[in-house]
Backbone:
């Protein structure tokens, strides 16, 4: 916890930011972004509103931009499906399971 890491912004959504560190991906949820940050639906990007004395700046986070962030928590668990679980699974469910298995291990971060 609180370890500072760096990586490149891979994806930005209203839910948060996915950061690629080369060997693993981290997720910065919207609730843990820097105070003053907001998501712009039109640009599909996060911005940080920075105020300095009498001026206001809007700094855009760019996809592929390298950022530093600190770890809030980690979750290395992934859903495991056993053969007993698959007896009643439909094709739709199997596709959902496959999608989950492809999801990155989650490092929840903050303070980028």
Residues:
């Amino acid at each position: 916890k609180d370890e500072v890491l760096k990586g490149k912004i891979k994806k930005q959504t209203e839910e948060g930011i996915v950061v690629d560190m080369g060997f693993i991906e981290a997720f910065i949820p919207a609730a843990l972004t820097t105070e003053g940050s907001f998501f712009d639906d039109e640009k599909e990007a996060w911005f940080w509103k920075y105020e300095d004395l009498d001026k206001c700046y809007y700094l855009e986070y760019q996809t592929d931009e390298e950022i530093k962030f600190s770890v809030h928590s980690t979750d290395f668990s992934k859903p495991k499906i056993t053969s007993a679980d698959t007896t009643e699974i439909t094709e739709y469910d199997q596709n959902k399971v496959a999608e989950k298995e492809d999801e990155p291990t989650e490092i929840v971060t903050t303070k980028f």
Summary: Residues 83-87 have pLDDT under 50 and may be disordered. Strands lie at 4-13, 16-20, 25-29, 37-40, 45-52, 55-60, 66-75, 106-110. Residues 80 and 101 are 8 Å apart (CA to CA).
